[in-house]
């Protein structure tokens, strides 16, 4: 069985690539999914493909519609959802996807700096694992998939 | 992951072939599904296979029953549903399938001429993307699947 | 048990009032639900409450969003959905709601003039009863609810 | 039919009371639900009832567990979910509840200042109505429930 | 709590009335549901209300459509489904409703003469209780509802 | 896409083999599923594997339990369910499986001799296609899968 | 809103009565559900109502079938499920019902002596609140329902 | 079709390996899933990967969270769930997983010594097959999958 892991949240650091490389180095059977992580493309996709909008609200609506086709489909197919909250931006979308994942019954792994512990307590409470250290996740996936600690 | 895209609606223009060719040219991993698009076969399949009916109502019922075995199954398996409203016929079936797709939680892409904008506002409101230009859909699928605008 | 019946479709004739009166005269325990049937209010509600839009597409989107809060909730609560197709307008919304109702497993009663029989064959095929005569529906509801033909 | 409306989000302004009063003044059949809005009680409920924890992470976990018994139950029972994002705190819980509501198929009304328009675009995109003005919501509920604009 | 009990199957003996009377005598809080048990009405309802059909197949289809609006709705609302197989007719409809009830997760109580034990083994296997004696059911319902044996 | 077709019902004629051969001759991508069709094994599997029972009721219960592990799993995986009612035995199990299939939303094709038309009207009414002639089913599957009448 | 609370587990101590009395004293709007707590009746109900069995396995099967009609229905209706593990018997049924409740998405409150903490860690992990002290539950329900700590 | 079988329960005997070997010897197309069966790893995984906890309750919570990511995912994917109760430990987790499996509609095969027959009657009652002899399971799987007794 190949495990499908959706990586939600922070798009301004290379955490996805690092995680994927570390998991590949462990030889785990994992396929990773993610939202579009090219920030500019993600913001402008709707207007660029479907036509420009004057009002920024509808500009954003068009883009969010396209992005949700991708994220909704991949979230629904995932076996595990990992959500990373970083220290930049408001990241409401990460919390929104955590809510969807939780409602779909997907096991949730949450990564965030310790300083957000109180603000994220409801999200953490719905999670199966919480850590402030992204580098622990590969080992965590190895345990889940192979049952070994080393 | 291969994306399954169901193409609902208009059957009197070659939009499906054109879309499939354009998507193939982009090299996207997509499998297309569609209802039976041979109009005569679609109308008469019930009577031809299961036996003739005098009353056109039951003639149509028999055919619609067979067609829905196909459409219901493929709609349920699709990742994305594209519905095209053309300028001929009443096309209630397209709106009916849009309703089913929406209820199943399938992301919906709607194509229709601008002149139908008001009449289709409820269908559009349930859609993730709306366009009057079929040729935008391949680029749209590329963005959804590969996350790139060019 | 009070039966909840949602009356979808045609909003330009007094068929809902006539049906409700006839059902009341029969003393049946039915509560009727309906979309907003004031056409002007239904078209402009979004702009009037939430603010005007220049682009008619977004004007309609705002209104359709509000209307679907009502229709989605009432459709989901209904025991039976009656959909009437009249001879004016394109009525895609009626077919769209029929699709949602069918997908939700709601028993569907469809009313339409005979001339639409072929164009509506897929909707009819998903229905539990089809008639061209609205005045038959009260007797039909009496049979369903009380099990009597007279 | 009495409509059940869950009021999620901001707990530091009296928007719930104002909204409930305005809706009551309109005579609408609405029952309002809300999370616990006493901030101190909400933070400490777990420790105060079930026993203290040294580690603030588990202190919060205990409280979040209790709060989610209430919020999960009320969200699942609501017909409509209103989520308000204010200008204080990170409010990830509001976005998390919006995700759950969306996944449950609940119609979503989102209130936020214009300045958050871009940051909340994914949440807005899943909403049936978006406004920056809380005082529009009673009129909006009146339209949904009674179908009248005045 | 009032328990909703759907009584499926045999319509040629007065078992429903006897069961309802016995349960009433025990003072149990039960509401009984049933299909239409007037055999002639049940056979002809479609043709009598919606119009005659020459072909008996479509005559029956029309009637079955109406009857299923009632049975489908009541089955879905029931807390418990009781199915009685008698010694007349083929009673496929009883087994069909037992299949639906089982699939819906409704607790199933099956009544049949001992002679049908082998032929009904799959239905019995999906049941929570099986008896050949209808008069045991009131006592059985009392135990389920009140927890008492006398 | 390979279509999964579950063949329910009659086990005393070679209709499954004939159907499978005819479908293979047409080159259709179909995988067939079926209950165990060895009548003796099907009756005695429980006792033979798990241990004998004196009481025939529990003998049958043990066997039915095992058989339902197979049938329940395959029914749930099927895209299409074909149910054949023959002229021998009571075949309640066929109607029971038709009820489950219908409840699961599986498209249903029913085969039965004309003489059973009235007795099976409720099952037929839930079906997408009804025929008295098993040899029509391969052509029917070809139409559903390939959209061609010849 | 009246909250429905199902009290699962231990039947040899008067914890249900004590809990119900304490909750009543607080004036909370709660309806309590429970399995049959008369141990002898619960063990023998099947045989006493439906007829004796020689083999204790089938004696128990008959009784368990009846009991599950009650417990399955009440679990499905509950808003909250409280499971108490005491110090007598193996109590697998309590853990089994906790599994069902968790799978149904019901908020779970678990009560057990500290000594069982390790053995119940998977059940506790699925719970929203865990305590070793039954007398804390009324206060806990008051907080959930009324949002007050005193 | 490859059947997915989840082996729940007892982790202190080599029953999984023996079962897997016996099934392999029969040449059956089965993939086996299991929880982590290394007892020490299963107990300490949370603390070892995510960081130590002083309080054994939270130590166990962290581990149980990780383990449930694996077990929840595999239970949901399984076609059949086999649960073995041994004679050591309290094994509440086995009963808990049986409850989840039952609620998910997974066919359940239960293995336990005869002495636990009364204590496990509710779990047995939800099972499709019960045996005290693990060595019968391969033959049972062969019957389910291939329909043959020898």
Q: Indicate the radius of gyration of chain A in whole angstroms.
A: 16 Å
- As residue ranges, the low-confidence spans of chain A are none
Structural class estimated from helices and strands of chain A: alpha/beta
CATH fold-level label of one domain in chain A: Rossmann fold
Which chain pair has the greatest contact? A-D, 39 and 39 residues
Top CATH class of one domain in chain A: Alpha Beta
Distance between the termini of chain A: 21 Å
Q: What is the count of helical runs of chain A?
A: 6
Strand numbers in spatial order across the main sheet of chain A:
2-1-3-4-5
**Largest sheet, strands/sense/barrel of chain A:** 5 strands, parallel
What would you call the quaternary organization? Answer: homooctamer
| H/E element sequence of chain A | EHEHHEHEHEH
User: What is the arithmetic mean of pLDDT of chain A?
Assistant: 97
CATH architecture of one domain in chain A: 3-Layer(aba) Sandwich
Portion of residues in beta strands of chain A equals 15-25%
Number of strands of chain A: 5
């Amino acid at each position: 069985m190949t495990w499908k892991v959706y990586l939600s949240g922070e798009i301004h650091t290379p955490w996805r690539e690092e995680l994927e490389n570390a998991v590949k180095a462990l030889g785990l059977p994992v396929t990773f999914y993610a939202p579009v992580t090219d920030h500019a493309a993600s913001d402008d996709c709707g207007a660029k493909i479907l036509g420009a909008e004057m009002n920024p609200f509808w500009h954003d609506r068009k883009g969010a519609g396209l992005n949700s086709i991708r994220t909704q489909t991949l979230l629904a197919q995932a076996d595990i959802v990992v959500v990373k909250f970083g220290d930049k931006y408001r990241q409401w979308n990460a919390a929104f996807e955590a809510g969807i994942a939780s409602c779909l019954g997907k096991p949730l792994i949450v990564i965030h700096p310790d300083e957000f512990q109180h603000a994220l307590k409801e999200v953490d409470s719905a999670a199966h694992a919480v850590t402030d250290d992204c580098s622990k996740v590969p080992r965590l996936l190895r345990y889940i998939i192979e049952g070994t600690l080393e």
